[in-house]
Design brief:
Length: 308
């Protein structure tokens, strides 16, 4: 498929794309890691200029690799949003050094702040709230924080959502005092119902931070199940479990078409919904995810005037 101009071919059937899904995919973001980014020869052949690209910082990844990836993407014309996992940052001096490297090398002015996936903090920080309180990101234009549509057992080990809810209320208050634009970038889920119910509950509770809903990109079913279990995906895991019982589909890639079509229909019927954008976790590869998005109408270009 020719992707250079990111438009449908003139002879492509107009009925091939769901218009609600196309609208919902507009401005989607995508996540990469340095080691996966290295496998992509040319991002510009996959992602239009303007796509927000998160860079996941996994424990043990040297900051130099992170910054090198950020610089490459920024030079290609992409707004870069690196992860800052609190629990792997030793102290304020380390945090300041990371920020200085990102800003100096790649002009980074946006970040995803999160606790991080390690049990024991490596130093002074253990939560994204501490990073926000530090003031180190005071001149950043955009700060995203984590959302958990199906809860998070690392934060609420006994079940429920009490601690997660307290953190969201704190972040809501912070969003009302900072000059940075904020959003909730969520863990991925596979079923629209729990996502919509969670988003509606936030709105009812006065949490108005826009939601960028996490979606797992196309991948082998076995890969999807492995990541879902590792990441603590909850009720919507049943979607994969049902699929696994169908031997006719066991070897076929699992695609996010159903969950995104349902979410797109909900957004079209409820334009004031706090679910505003899609954020892809390319579990089956960046190229596979990008091509799927384009085939379904997603240009992924973020208009300069949009801030949500």
């Amino acid at each position: 498929m020719a992707l250079l101009n990111f438009r449908k071919k003139d002879n492509a059937p107009a009925t091939g794309v769901n218009p609600e899904l196309e609208t919902f995919l507009d401005g989607y973001s995508i996540e990469v890691m340095p080691r996966t980014a290295e496998k992509v020869e040319d991002f510009k052949a996959l992602l239009p200029k303007g796509t927000r690209v998160y860079i996941a910082h996994i424990e043990g990844t040297p900051i130099e690799d992170m910054v090198r990836t950020a610089k490459r993407l920024a030079e290609d014309g992409y707004p870069v949003m690196p992860h800052f996992p609190a629990r792997i940052i030793k102290d304020r001096a380390t945090l300041d050094n990371w920020i200085a490297m990102y800003r100096g090398e790649a002009g980074v002015d946006q970040a995803l702040l999160l606790a991080g996936g390690v049990d024991q903090p490596h130093g002074d920080f253990h939560s994204s709230m501490q990073l926000m309180e530090s003031g180190a990101f005071g001149d950043f234009k955009r700060l995203h924080v984590a959302g958990h549509p199906e809860g998070n057992k690392d934060i609420d080990p006994s079940g429920g959502t009490a601690n997660v809810d307290d953190a969201l209320r704190w972040k809501q208050k912070f969003s009302e005092t900072t000059d940075a634009d904020m959003a909730l970038a969520t863990q991925f889920a596979f079923e629209a119902g729990p996502i919509i119910e969670w988003a509606d509950s936030l709105k009812a509770a006065g949490i108005t931070i826009p939601i960028h809903i996490g979606i797992a990109g196309p991948a082998k079913l076995q890969t999807m199940i492995k990541f879902a279990i590792a990441c603590g995906v909850g009720p919507s895991l049943r979607v994969l479990q049902r699929r696994a019982k169908d031997v006719t589909k066991l070897l076929l890639p699992f695609e996010p078409t159903e969950v995104l079509t349902d979410l797109a229909a909900h957004k079209a019927a409820n334009p004031d919904s706090n679910i505003e954008r899609v954020h892809f976790f390319p579990l089956g590869g960046i190229k596979t995810n990008a091509n799927w998005a384009i085939e379904n109408g997603g240009t992924s270009a973020v208009p300069a005037a949009q801030t949500s």
